[in-house]
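User: Predict the complex with adenosine-5'-diphosphate.
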Amino acid sequence: MLPEPNFPARPEQFIGRYRQIEAFEEALRHSSVTRRMTSFAVLGDWGIGKSSLLLKFAAISARPEHRFLPVSLSVGTDLIDYRRLAERLLDKLAETLARSESIVDRVRAEAKNWKLKGISVGGLNLERETARFLSSGSALLSHALDDAWKRFVKPSDFNGAIFLLDDLHNLPSTAAAALAIRDQFQSFGIDSLNYSVCFSAKASYFSGIRSFAEPAVRFYNKLYIAPFTPEETSDYVQAVFGKTPETSQALASWLFDKTLGHPFFLAFISRKLLAHVGSSVPGSPARHWPEILQQLEQEKFSFDLGQVSDRENELLRTLAKSSDHEFTPGQFVKQSDYVYFRRLTDKGLLVRTGRGKYKLYHPLFRLFLQGLRP
Ligand SMILES: Nc1ncnc2c1ncn2[C@@H]1O[C@H](COP(=O)(O)OP(=O)(O)O)[C@@H](O)[C@H]1O
Ligand SMILES: [Mg+2]
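Assistant: Here is the predicted structure with adenosine-5'-diphosphate placed in the model:
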């Protein structure tokens, strides 16, 4: 495998995460009896492997033994409300159907045709009048997905469809959106339309949700993803450098020591190591470390700092100098400046570790801010 730190892992090269995969497969098996697929929330911080896991889930759900239609959508910051999300989802559904190998030609042709005719209403065969009338996102979705179930999903013999929404935290008014999605997908379940949703978001996604939206929190099966364990790191190293247990074990420990199993850093450093040593197992990775670190600074950390204000930059450096790895805003700023912590969290440079507690997103970033070379 050639590590690609800036793309989600390909499903066939996906490493580890057995517990999450088992939970997902268990739900798929269960749904073949109940005809209702559980909805999932994949939660974790930047670079930890959320998008990769969603892609893996999509591939698993499409296998012949499960026969689901996966509809993948990356939620960008341009989706300003639930209505836009609904439209984009319907477009994606139509596109996915039009490309699907597992549906009969007649249905595919119909889906293609509808996509061409009705872009403005999400690519499904809704009359323009009806579309205008259905002004809210949820009304549009219920109508269109009910329609799609009868016309496409059922006739193609799918057990159901799963909407995989990557980075749902990009949608504004988090609590209201989470609640709307939950209401919508719960009612599909009641109407025997086997639609489910599997979304990814920052680890702290649900902690910002107030009590009125608590049903939304309960609705999802929550899968938190952490950095790779030493075993997963070792599997990763073998997939990249080949299976020579003795040398690759030493390399795996060295990499684990540097990255703490963080998949992005693992991918980044492995890729640079490969460039140095070709396809063999690097015997003395430490020799290449200064150069790799420099590349990490140029290609990642200076980009991180490029998106912060002077005040935020200064704050980050102060945090990095602190002897604590975990801290509260009160230790560093007055209450009116707590907002900086939230902004830096939104930018992925701080992570929330608990109520009012934060840390820098990775120890290597901390070292960089300290101006030290480990
Ligand atoms: N399970 C995995 N197997 C192999 N590589 C992975 C895995 N998860 C993450 N990666 C690597 O880490 C990088 C970051 O993962 P990604 O899924 O994009 O994280 P996120 O969406 O949480 O920001 C990917 O580019 C990929 O190289
Ligand atoms: Mg991602």
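Residues 50-51, 166-167 surround magnesium ion (ligand 2) (CB under 6 Å).
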